[in-house]
Amino acid sequence: MRVLRTRSANESAGNGVAVEGAGAGVGLFVAGGPPPGGLNAGLETAGNVVIGNRLTNNGLPGVAFHLHTAYMGQNLNNNLIADNYIASNGADTEDAATPGPTGINVFATTEATTTGTVIVQKRDQGRGGRHRSQHERAD
User: Fold this and answer.
1) Which of 104, 100, 78 is nearest to 25 (CA)?
2) What are the start-end ranges of the E strands in the chain?
3) Is the overall model pTM greater than 0.85, yes or no?
4) Residue 24, CB half-sphere, CA atoms under 13 Å: how many?
5) Which of 22, 51, 133, 135 is deepest in the core (most CB within 10 A)?
6) Is residue 137 part of a domain?
7) pLDDT tens for residues 70-97?
8) Which residues contact 98 (CB under 8 A, 6 or more apart)?
9) Are 132 and 138 in contact (CB under 8 A)?
C-alpha cells in the first residue's frame, strides 16, 4: 500500500454536535459530482493511514469514509485504520445512514470499487461499532 496521507495522534471530541448531520472525528470523502477534467479523471481518497487518534463524542461516526458517486476511476481503496480510541460517536446520516451510533462507517455506491482498505481496531469503546452501508460493495 502506498501511503499518501497520515492522520495520527489527534484528538477530535464533540466535533459537529451543534449541527445535525455534521462532525465526523476523521472524515475521508470523495466529492460528489463529475471530477475536474471530465468524467474519467478519477477522484479518490486512497492511501490514507488513520492511526493512534482519540475520536469521541462527535456528531457523526468516529471515522467516516464516503464515496457518493460512481464515476469511473473514483475509489476509496487502500486505506488503513488502526489502533484508534473511538467512543460514543453519533450515527451517520442521509444516504450513508447507519442504524445508530457508529465507530467506523465505510459507505460507497453499489457501482463503486472499494478494495484494500484494512481496519484493525482494538479499542472501539462504548456505543457504536463498525458499519458497512447496505450500498457498499466489497470486492
Assistant:
1) 104
2) 5-8, 11-13, 26-30, 48-51, 54-56, 63-67, 80-82, 85-87, 102-108, 118-120, 123-125, 129-132
3) no
4) 19
5) 133
6) no
7) 777 778 889 999 999 999 999 999 989 9
8) 61, 91, 92, 105, 131, 133
9) yes
Q: Is residue 63 within 8 Å of residue 99, measured between CB atoms?
A: no
Residue 103's domain spans which residues?
5-9+24-30+46-132
Which 3 state secondary structure label does DSSP give 129?
strand
Question: Using alpha carbons only, what angle is made at residue 8 by residues 129 and 26, rounded to the nearest 5 degrees?
Answer: 45
The residue whose grid cell reads 468524467 is 39
In a domain, 19, yes or no: no
How many domains does the chain fold into? 1
Instruction: Give the residue among 28, 112, 93 at the shortest CA–CA distance from 63.
Output: 28
Q: Which residue bears the cell 459537529?
A: 16
pLDDT tens for 4-14 read 889 899 999 99
